Amino acid sequence: MLNKPKYNLFKNTNYALAGLKDIFQNEKSFKAQLMAFFILGIFAFLLHLSYVKTSIMIISLFLPLICEVANSAIERTVDLVTLEHHELAKKAKDAGAALVFMAYFIVFMVWILTLYA
Length: 117
Known about the structure:
Blueprint (H helix, E strand, L loop, with lengths): L8 H18 L1 H19 L4 H10 L1 H20 L5 H29 L2
Helix pairs in contact: 2-4, 3-5, 4-5
């Protein structure tokens, strides 16, 4: 690929951090996901469950954050291609939103199964 720089661990880490910083600064939905992460994470600790159960619950909270980053990448790519309304662009953005929705469903299921197991 012509547009791909040579691999370098430190440069790639900087790219990743720059991406997270940009998403945090420009995506309200990511900030909301992060707020939910911290609120639910604190709640998980306050339940005084076993270390394993608490860990499973908190680890599951990373899934919506990861999916929101992917959703942001999809939305930005679609916006790069076209800002006009196009049915395929809408479907791509809807699929990204579905990704986040499904992540929260998984979190819900993990929490229910962990609390009642």
